[in-house]
Design a protein that fits this description.
about 0% strand, mainly alpha, single chain, Major Prion Protein, ATPase_inh_sub_z_sf, DUF1476 family protein, elongated, ATPase_inh_sub_z, about 110 residues
């Protein structure tokens, strides 16, 4: 292999690793967000676990965060919680920071 091919392969590996890490952080963020919403709704620990998993799954419906925001807003309002999109987006940002911090502490 030439030096150029080695360098290209290294960039490809780094890109793949970065993408995997971004996916894992987003999944962790969504789980934390689901746990936050579940606590607002007063769910049991078993219900919280199932709900957090459903929030992670909701993120696969479409690109971006709109699917997660829509799910949380609908679920929280249906549960009688006074909630708006702005508070959910703030929680999304807060949980993203927390998820990144958790991954940095692991490594």
């Amino acid at each position: 292999m030439t030096a150029f091919e080695d360098r290209e392969k290294a960039f490809e590996n780094k890109f793949a690793k970065d993408q995997e890490l971004a996916f894992r952080i987003a999944a962790r963020r969504n789980r934390l967000l689901g746990e936050w919403a579940a606590s607002l709704m007063g769910l049991t620990s078993e219900e919280t676990d199932a709900y957090a998993k459903s929030v992670v799954q909701a993120d696969f419906e479409e690109a971006g965060d709109e699917d997660v925001v829509r799910k949380l807003l609908g679920d929280l309002v249906s549960a009688g919680i006074d909630m708006d999109e702005g508070r959910i987006r703030q929680a999304l940002d807060d949980k993203a920071v927390e998820a990144r911090r958790q991954f940095m502490q692991q490594g």
